[in-house]
TrEMBL record, chain A:
<keyword id="KW-0472">Membrane</keyword>
<feature type="transmembrane region" description="Helical">
    <location>
        <begin position="258"/>
        <end position="284"/>
    </location>
</feature>
<dbReference type="InterPro" id="IPR018303">
    <property type="entry name" value="ATPase_P-typ_P_site"/>
</dbReference>
<protein>
    <recommendedName>
        <fullName>Potassium-transporting ATPase ATP-binding subunit</fullName>
        <ecNumber>7.2.2.6</ecNumber>
    </recommendedName>
</protein>
<keyword id="KW-0633">Potassium transport</keyword>
<feature type="binding site">
    <location>
        <position position="352"/>
    </location>
    <ligand>
        <name>ATP</name>
    </ligand>
</feature>
<comment type="function">
    <text>Part of the high-affinity ATP-driven potassium transport (or Kdp) system, which catalyzes the hydrolysis of ATP coupled with the electrogenic transport of potassium into the cytoplasm. This subunit is responsible for energy coupling to the transport system and for the release of the potassium ions to the cytoplasm.</text>
</comment>
TrEMBL record, chain B:
<feature type="transmembrane region" description="Helical">
    <location>
        <begin position="134"/>
        <end position="156"/>
    </location>
</feature>
<feature type="transmembrane region" description="Helical">
    <location>
        <begin position="523"/>
        <end position="545"/>
    </location>
</feature>
<feature type="transmembrane region" description="Helical">
    <location>
        <begin position="314"/>
        <end position="334"/>
    </location>
</feature>
<feature type="transmembrane region" description="Helical">
    <location>
        <begin position="457"/>
        <end position="477"/>
    </location>
</feature>
<feature type="transmembrane region" description="Helical">
    <location>
        <begin position="566"/>
        <end position="593"/>
    </location>
</feature>
<protein>
    <recommendedName>
        <fullName>Potassium-transporting ATPase potassium-binding subunit</fullName>
    </recommendedName>
</protein>
<keyword id="KW-0633">Potassium transport</keyword>
TrEMBL record, chain C:
<protein>
    <recommendedName>
        <fullName>Potassium-transporting ATPase KdpC subunit</fullName>
    </recommendedName>
</protein>
<keyword id="KW-0406">Ion transport</keyword>
<keyword id="KW-0067">ATP-binding</keyword>
<keyword id="KW-0812">Transmembrane</keyword>
<dbReference type="InterPro" id="IPR003820">
    <property type="entry name" value="KdpC"/>
</dbReference>
<keyword id="KW-0633">Potassium transport</keyword>
<keyword id="KW-0547">Nucleotide-binding</keyword>
Length: 690, 602, 196
């Protein structure tokens, strides 16, 4: 679905049409009131409309044509801002509509007793409440969010994730949650419903997407206060111009006082309409961009907080390293050849279907051409790994080959009457210090050597961490490995710090400690035992593949279940803030040029000397004022794509980033309107509009 | 500007910057309650004061309590000044037997001195008794300055403290500021000024015999003081002769020292620091000018010291100094260019070895152009407001710069304490914008800047323009407001705008042609001074309280550094943009158009 | 609020005593003992001990035989040392132009063949109205007139002016200037020594 559908062009014609229509629908005072800056423009437009009507009655302060043109462009300003918001919302709405298709009412098989085989009654999915237990069989839709308590099944989750490959859901473990609206493809599941109607994941997603629960984020509120303050400053500056102008006319004895129309035009040009008009679009678009990345945020606040993250906790396995360790070397004991060791190791691993086991077989084949032997023909007995022995291996032709962790094999060798040489001990430590996992191989009472199982650090991950460091984010690797191994991998991957032998308690304590120091912590998690840490973290991304508990505890859900997504989430959060900051700067910087356009024009009759300030050489007072108003309206339209896409984030360090953005949006904001207003003035003159 | 002028400005800046550092560190020690020389001398006195006043000096206050104490103390001081003025006719130390001050003027002056504005609606030597000058005005010169510094220190504690609700003890900050900072400095400066010729006596005014007898005419007045008119309706005048000149004296040096050091600015005499008895020599001028900016500049270092990063103080000081220097050069060159109207009359305004030249109307020969312009910029950059030349007679642009400096919110050095807390508020706004631009919730000195701080910052930035623009609008719409205007045309508008700017930002200087000692202006400007002083102090204290309660965010590589040239530039841009965007329309109708007219019609 | 009352009242009272009583008294004491002349107004006394002016405060001169100081805008008469102040005329005020034109005329009336441009400080009002100084240019402009009125050789008057030039203080601060009252007193003194 979704990313394909969503990444459709910004100006998809259907969305556009919809947005235009929405822009008009938003012209109600209630809608406008939500945005104080644009509300002022709205009132100004109403006022000039009245002034125009007054001219029709034959008592105008300026020519009817002039007032009408100004009025029309003021209304355009309001509409353009509405359109920006509608365009941002439009994309989200399209997604919400898609999600709704998954939310049709599904018949549920409610079990009388919470076990497979119990009798069930068919009821509507929407009447299920928390705690109900349902049976879902192949071909059925999952009627609501819940945890699998019995059974294994493959589930098609494309309705939520857009991923067409089915996933396995089973009771126990980290793959036990199912989401309403998905479909069981094979086998059956017994599921305990975990959400009441209206509170399901799908419901939350839809309301989030639709913005029904969209609240202003803290920074948005603070920025709004600043914008309101600026608006009030300019309101004062323009309102008081009327008495000032009256006095000037009186004392200079020439000209007319400034007209209300011109005052309104000046006010609208000065107040930060660019950022005011685009502010809510930026917020909506930020959440929308998260969605394009297949991340569902539960609040805009969470997205914004992502931009502030100071510390990132990352699970080693699956995030920093590829999920599986692989055999990298055979290190034989004294008196044993490498090939002998490889041979024994391969024999011991022939039926070991774990990725580690398979990698041993492959490595032996690569290095020494040792072919896989036919298991049956050897007449061997395979010893499978058990939690008690913590070894696996093979018995054949009198040989008893075992492989396993150092302490297990050591015990085995000694039990067999052999000796575990000190040199072996040293080899084991060396391997561990390299960040690899040592696997010791023994043949009866003789220790043959060590297999080095290596954690493979993901390609490109080191570069991502460098980027994060430049963003000012500290990365901490979380692993169950011992300190030695953890330190080596941390060094290889380039993380700043690590937490070895991590327990859920240790994770929670680490998060709390950083928060107490005033840092904002982000983490990802999927297991139930991650839930406390997720709940504690400021930005917590739960994997969609994870448990219901993890998803409940997080404030974002990654539908792709990709732990490196956090980095993109942080970027999106930063982009949202940066876009607001940049457009605010741009908006305020624009005012300089607008003063140069309007002030000489407004007082042309009283103080013609002020025409020295008409540095742009605008044709007439009317064309100057009109050009400024038109520029002010058009710039909103011109900046909509930027507002929706967000400005590009580059991890350059705070100082450099600020400098770049000040140059582009500050200095740019100074220069662009001079060019724009002059160009509009030229067009107006050539078209004989003024 | 010639080399000598350039050299004087350079020496001034160097002296200011060099002296500001040790004084700043000393003040930080005072506020940290560390042992200092003065402390060991006066520790007993300080403890005794607290005991007499029932002050629990170890007990810190929440911001609301701090604000409450400040308001009560200031209001009380205001009432005392009012009472002294209205009763001075039957109080002692009134050798000239000056009458009581009218209630509207007394109220205006009381507000003016309590708020550290020191706007002078009255003429000192012609209206205030020595007792009023000492017990009323001199005392408030100290206490209003100390109030501003106390609020600043409370705000700094907001940054340096964490997870606490208290921001210090107002009484202690007040007492220590006065005893250990203002009094010793004032004493030193006062003696140095007397050495240069500033008067300091309790004797009555002196009378000297004139070399050339004076003949002048005065309107004849009837018994009730109305001018007697002749048949044509012209006032009848009578010719008078005089052989004598009466020289106004008084305990001036002691008051002038604190008036400059405490960015007060209210003169002992009407002509303020242009009066030869207030400012007799170029050296006294240099010392007084230095005193104007010394404490505001030094407080930047105090700030850096107290927040534990001296670079933060340097950055603010650098930002202030840059704006200051740039505007000094604009003003000096505007004044040095002179008045084209006089050139056409055959007046020589060229600078030469024999004369400073330039626009000398309203300036003193010993100061010339450079020292008058430099003073004008310093006194308006700081919220001092004392003048050694008449701003009303400056060229339009030369007069606009001081007015604009006031309109910037008195943050380029600004008043003692108030200037820096104003600048810190601007820094919060700059940090906020910058923080957004780098994609982080803004933080300053380890404290997150959030909606509450922005709300208070907005109030602080909004109030002065509201008072200035709103008040000016009111004045130019009413007959009472327009009647006081002296100069015609756009310049008259500038007079009113300057008056409201000065009162609405607690500066105190004036385009003195405006007859402001009338009920309309006494009340309007009084209100403006009151609102701009306390309307800003209270939100500043609220910010202090809010910041103190926050935890400290450690500095990381993602933190925006606020001690770099880039930040200084951003801060300057923020201050100038707010100031320019708010006041450009008004300034266009005053000094800007007047300058264009002056150049177009010499 | 009431809990603030006692500290506020008492502290204000004590601070008033310290800063409003003790401090000015101490400064006066020190000033009167270390710099008595300056502290009392830098008065100039004649041989009889009568005060005839102050080195700091200017006096008005309008006769041709005296050097004139800065125009003074004090009311009701110039150089009123109990009502200091400037004209406050704005640069574009026609009244300023008229006043300057009048002053030029007054100067030129007594100095008919002097067509040099008039130094600006001689025709513009000072800030205090009590400015005791004029620029060197302004003094030089008047040398010929004073010499003629006193029937003294120009060179003698010029020498007197030169000897009354106060250079920049410490060679750096302020402007070079001439104290008008001091110069005029010296002129009168020179006349007295010349006559008998």
């Amino acid at each position: 679905m979704t990313h394909k559908a969503l990444s459709a062009s910004l100006f998809d014609s259907d969305l556009l049409k919809q947005a235009v229509w929405e822009a008009f629908k938003k012209l109600t005072p209630q809608q406008q009131w939500k945005n104080p800056v644009m509300f002022v423009v709205y009132l100004g437009s109403l006022l000039t409309t009245c002034l125009w009507l007054q001219t029709l009655a034959g008592a105008g302060e300026e020519s009817a044509g002039f007032i009408l043109t100004i009025t029309v462009w003021l209304w355009f300003t309001v509409l353009f801002a509405n359109f920006a918001e509608a365009a941002a919302e439009g994309r989200s709405k399209a997604q919400a509509a898609f999600l709704r298709t998954a939310k049709r009412d599904i018949a549920a098989k409610k079990l009388d007793e919470p076990r497979y085989g119990s009798d069930y009654s068919k009821i509507a999915g929407s009447s299920l409440v928390k705690g109900d237990v349902v049976l879902i069989e192949a071909g059925d839709f999952v009627p609501g969010d819940g945890d699998v308590i019995e059974g294994v099944a493959s589930v098609d989750e494309s309705a939520i994730t857009g991923e067409s490959a089915p996933v396995i859901r089973e009771s126990g473990g980290d793959f036990s949650s199912v989401t309403g609206g998905t479909r069981v493809l094979s086998d059956w599941l017994v599921v305990r419903i975990s959400a009441n109607p209206g509170e399901t994941f799908l419901d939350r997603m839809i309301s989030m997407v639709e913005g029904a629960k969209r609240q202003k984020t803290p920074n948005e509120i603070a920025l709004t206060i600043l914008l309101v303050a600026l608006t009030l400053v300019f309101l004062m500056a323009t309102v008081t111009l009327l008495p000032f102008s009256l006095y000037s006319v009186e004392t200079s004895g020439s000209g007319h006082p400034i007209s209300i129309t011109v005052l309104v035009a000046l006010l609208v040009c000065l107040i930060p309409t660019t950022i005011g008009g685009l502010l809510s679009a930026i917020g909506v678009a930020g959440i929308g961009r998260m969605m394009q990345k297949n991340v569902i945020a539960t609040s805009g606040r969470a997205v914004e907080a992502a931009g502030d993250v100071d510390v990132l906790l990352l699970d080693k396995t699956g995030t920093i390293t590829l999920g599986n360790r692989q055999a990298a070397a055979f290190i034989p004991a004294k008196g044993i050849s490498e090939k002998q060791l490889a041979d024994a190791a391969q024999l011991a691993s022939l039926t070991d279907e774990t990725p580690e086991g398979r990698s041993i077989v492959v490595l032996a084949k690569q290095k020494f051409g040792l072919r896989e032997r036919d298991v049956q023909s050897l007449g061997a007995t395979f010893i499978h790994f058990s939690a008690q022995t913590r070894m696996s291996g093979v018995n054949l032709q009198g040989r008893q080959i075992r492989k396993g962790a150092e302490d297990a094999i050591k015990q085995y060798v000694i039990e067999q009457g052999g000796r575990f040489p000190d040199q072996m001990q040293k080899m084991v430590v060396d391997v561990a210090r390299r960040g690899s996992t040592p696997l010791v191989v023994a043949d009866s009472k003789q220790a043959l050597g060590v297999i080095e199982l290596k954690d493979i650090v993901k390609g490109g991950i080191k570069e991502r961490f460098i980027e994060l460091r430049q963003m000012g984010i500290k990365t901490i690797m979380i692993t169950g490995d011992n300190r030695l191994t953890a330190a080596a991998i941390a060094a290889e991957a380039g993380v700043d710090d690590f937490l070895a032998e991590a327990t859920p308690e240790a994770k929670l304590a680490l998060i709390r400690q950083h928060q107490a120091d005033g840092r904002l912590v982000a983490m990802t998690g999927d297991g139930t035992n991650d839930a406390p840490a997720l709940a504690q973290a400021d930005v917590a991304v739960a994997m969609n593949s994870g448990t219901q508990a993890a998803k409940e505890a997080g404030n974002m859900v990654d539908l792709d279940s990709n732990p490196t997504k956090l980095i993109e989430i942080v970027e999106t959060g930063k982009q949202m803030l940066m876009t607001r900051g940049a457009l605010t700067t741009f908006s305020v910087a624009n005012d300089v040029a607008k003063y140069f356009a309007i002030i000489p024009a407004a007082f042309a009759t009283t103080y013609p000397a002020l025409n020295v300030l008409n540095v742009m050489g605008l044709a007439t007072p009317a064309s100057a004022i009109l050009s400024a108003v038109i520029f002010n309206a058009l710039i909103i339209i011109a900046l909509i794509p930027l507002a929706l896409k967000g400005i590009k984030y580059q991890p350059l360090g705070a100082e450099k980033l600020l400098q770049n953005n000040l140059l582009v949006y500050g200095v740019g904001g100074l220069i662009v309107p001079f060019i724009g207003i002059k160009a509009i003035d030229l067009v107006l003159v050539t078209m004989n509009l003024v | 500007m010639n080399e000598a002028g350039f050299l004087q400005i350079l020496i001034y800046l160097i002296a200011l910057l060099v002296l500001s550092k040790p004084l700043g560190v000393y003040m930080a020690r005072v506020y940290q309650d560390e042992s200092i020389v003065a402390n060991t001398w006066f520790a007993g006195l300080e403890r005794g004061l607290y005991r007499l006043c029932g002050i629990q000096d170890k007990q810190d206050m929440r911001w609301q309590q701090y604000a409450g104490a400040l308001l009560v103390f200031n209001l009380l001081g205001l009432l005392v000044v009012y009472a002294l003025q209205t009763c001075q006719d039957w109080l002692p130390l009134n050798p000239q037997t000056l009458p009581a001050i009218a209630p509207d003027s007394a109220l205006n002056t009381a507000i003016s001195f309590a708020t550290n504005t020191n706007w002078q609606g009255y003429a000192g030597e012609a209206s205030m008794s020595y007792l009023t000058q000492m017990l009323g005005l001199t005392v408030q010169n100290f206490l209003s300055a100390a109030s501003g510094m106390a609020v600043l220190v409370a705000l700094i504690r907001g940054f340096s403290r964490r997870n606490t609700s208290s921001i210090g003890n107002f009484w202690v900050d007040m007492t220590r500021t006065t005893l250990y900072i203002l009094l010793p400095l004032s004493l030193l400066l006062a003696i140095a000024l007397v050495g240069q010729g500033v008067v300091q006596t309790f004797d009555r005014y002196a009378t000297v015999k004139l070399q050339e007898p004076l003949t002048y005419s005065t309107p004849t007045v009837d018994a009730v003081g109305h001018a007697v008119l002749d048949a044509q309706g012209h006032p009848i005048t009578q010719t008078q002769q005089s052989q004598e000149q009466t020289l106004a004296l008084g305990p001036a040096a002691s008051q002038i020292a604190i008036k400059q050091l405490g960015t007060n600015g209210g003169g002992f005499f009407n002509a303020n620091s242009a009066h030869p008895y207030e400012n007799p020599t170029p050296l006294s001028n240099f010392l007084e000018m230095l005193a104007i900016l010394l404490i505001p500049a030094a407080l930047c270092h105090t700030f850096g010291f107290l927040v534990g990063d001296s670079r933060q103080g340097w950055t603010l000081l650098a930002a202030m100094t840059l704006v200051f220097v740039a505007l000094v050069f604009v003003t000096v060159s505007a004044e040095q260019h002179g008045n084209p109207a006089l050139t056409s009359l055959g007046v020589d305004q060229a600078s030469s070895i024999q004369q400073p030249g330039g626009n000398m109307e309203g300036k003193e020969a010993r100061f010339g152009i450079v020292n008058s312009a430099l003073w004008a910029v310093a006194t308006t950059a700081a919220s001092n407001g004392s003048v050694n030349a008449m701003h009303d007679s400056f060229t339009p642009i030369g007069g606009m710069i001081p007015m604009w400096l006031i309109q910037l919110g008195e943050v380029i050095f600004g008043g003692v304490g108030s200037g820096l807390y104003g600048m810190i508020v601007f820094a919060l706004v700059a940090v906020f914008i910058a923080g957004l631009m780098i994609g982080r919730t803004p933080e300053y000195l380890g404290k997150k800047i959030e909606a509450f701080e922005m709300q208070m910052a907005a109030v602080i930035i909004l109030i002065p323009p509201l008072l200035v623009l709103g008040g000016t609008a009111l004045a130019v719409m009413t007959e009472a407001g327009k009647a006081s205007i002296l100069n015609p045309g756009a310049h008259g508008f500038s007079e009113v705008l300057y008056a409201l700017s000065s009162a609405g930002n607690n500066n105190g200087s004036a385009f003195a042609g405006l007859s402001a000692n009338v009920p309309f202006y006494n009340y309007l400007l009084g209100l403006a001074m009151l609102v701009s002083r306390y309307g800003l102090m209270i939100p500043v204290l609220a910010i202090a309280g809010s910041l103190a309660a926050k935890k400290h965010v450690p500095v990381g590589p993602g933190t925006l550094p606020t001690h770099t040239p880039l930040f200084a530039v951003l801060l300057i841009i923020t201050v100038l943009m707010v100031g320019a965007l708010t006041f450009v329309p008004a300034l266009a109708l005053g000094p800007i158009v007047e300058q264009l007219h002056m150049l177009a019609h010499p | 609020m009431t809990s603030y009352f006692r500290p506020a009242v008492t502290l204000l009272l004590l601070m008033t005593i310290i800063t409003g009583g003790f401090y000015p008294a101490l400064v006066t004491l020190l000033a009167q003992s270390v710099f008595p002349a300056q502290a009392n107004g830098s008065l100039i006394r004649d041989k009889q001990g009568q005060a005839i002016g102050s080195t700091q405060i200017g006096q008005g001169f309008s006769q041709a035989r005296y050097f004139w100081g800065r125009p003074s805008a004090t009311a009701p008469y110039p150089y009123n040392a109990t009502a200091s102040g400037g004209s406050n005329l704005g640069p574009t005020n026609p009244a300023l132009r008229d006043a300057v034109a009048q002053r030029i005329q007054a100067l030129q009336q007594l100095d008919l063949d002097n067509h040099a441009p008039v130094p600006v400080d001689l025709v513009t009002a000072s800030a205090s109205g009590l400015d005791p100084h004029i620029s060197i240019a302004a003094a030089n402009y008047q040398v010929k007139r004073v010499a003629e009125a006193r029937q003294l050789p120009e060179s003698k008057v010029r020498d007197l002016v030169d000897s009354h030039i106060e250079p920049r203080q410490w060679r750096v601060f302020g402007e070079a200037r001439v104290n008008v009252l001091g110069l005029n007193l010296a002129l009168d003194a020179a006349a007295q020594t010349a006559r008998p």
